[in-house]
Write a structure and sequence with these properties.
Elements (H helix, E strand, L loop, with lengths): L1 H32 L3 H24 L7 H22 L7 H13 L3 H9 L4 H26 L4 H16 L11 H19 L4 H28 L21
Helix pairs in contact: 1-2, 1-3, 2-3, 3-4, 3-5, 3-6, 4-8, 6-7, 6-8, 8-9
């Protein structure tokens, strides 16, 4: 029992350190750009939610160690928290586009690193894969909110599609069945963040930005539609998993 308590304490320390680093990043951003109360409150809410959800998941998991891969994912989550604060602050003042793009670019570049680290160190886990997936999904949601201010609310379909699928799976349990691996699905998932980042950077003419985001949305609709049809056709052959184990139609490579 004492040994288990020691491991639990170490796991909780990891999440606490992550929350502290998140607050430090917010302080640095606040001093650099004079971030307003909306940005601060949003960033702090993200830090608290990440700490609370991850702590609860770790408490319920069989993990004995946080692991290097989860540390990479936690680092990406910290960057996503910074992006979230900047996007929230952009509704009150002109956004620091260069800083926002830089944080987002690093977060996107690190996507997949945690998976490689997990495989090389033999520390892959269901919790780690889910953590990675949720960080990716939330970053896409935040970027779609930012770009929607430029191109219109329809862009929110990109960030909201995964969450709509999770909600639909509660009503249609056959959507919880596992999907076969798909390189196309992973490719579509990867280009969402890139396309939204390109549009958010506003380096291209407005028509080009529109075309880039339409490409992202079209590919995502195709990917989700193809997988939903596959799940529907195989609904009777595959026993559905419990709703709490719903996985994203565009899973991470971890």
């Amino acid at each position: 029992m004492a040994l288990n308590n020691t491991y639990d304490a170490r796991l909780q320390q990891e999440t606490a350190v992550g929350a502290a680093v998140q607050i430090l990043l917010l302080a640095l951003l606040g001093s650099a750009i004079g971030m307003g109360p909306v940005g601060w409150l949003t960033g702090l809410a993200f830090a608290f939610a990440t700490w609370a959800v991850l702590s609860r998941a770790l408490y319920r998991s069989p993990l004995r160690s946080f692991g290097p891969a989860n540390r990479v994912t936690l680092g990406r989550a910290t960057l996503v928290g910074g992006v979230t604060a900047l996007v929230a602050d952009s509704f009150e003042s002109a956004p620091p586009v260069t800083l926002l793009v830089a944080l987002t670019a690093v977060a996107l570049l690190l996507d997949g690193v945690d998976g490689k680290v997990a495989r090389r160190t033999g520390t892959s886990s269901a919790l780690g894969a889910r953590f990675d997936m949720e960080v990716d999904a939330f970053l896409i949601l935040v970027l779609s909110v930012y770009v929607s201010a430029q191109l219109g609310p329809w862009v929110l379909l990109i960030g909201g599609m995964r969450y709509a699928f999770v909600a639909a799976a509660r009503l249609a349990p056959w959507l919880t069945a596992p999907l076969p691996p798909s390189f196309a699905r992973k490719t579509v998932a990867a280009i969402q963040g890139v396309c939204l980042l390109v549009a958010g950077a506003e380096l291209l003419p407005a028509p080009a930005n529109l075309a880039v985001v339409l490409l992202a949305l079209g590919s995502l609709v195709w990917s989700f539609g193809r997988d939903v049809l596959w799940l529907r056709r195989n609904a009777r052959a595959v026993r559905p998993a419990p709703a709490r184990r719903v996985r994203e139609l565009v899973p991470s490579g971890r």
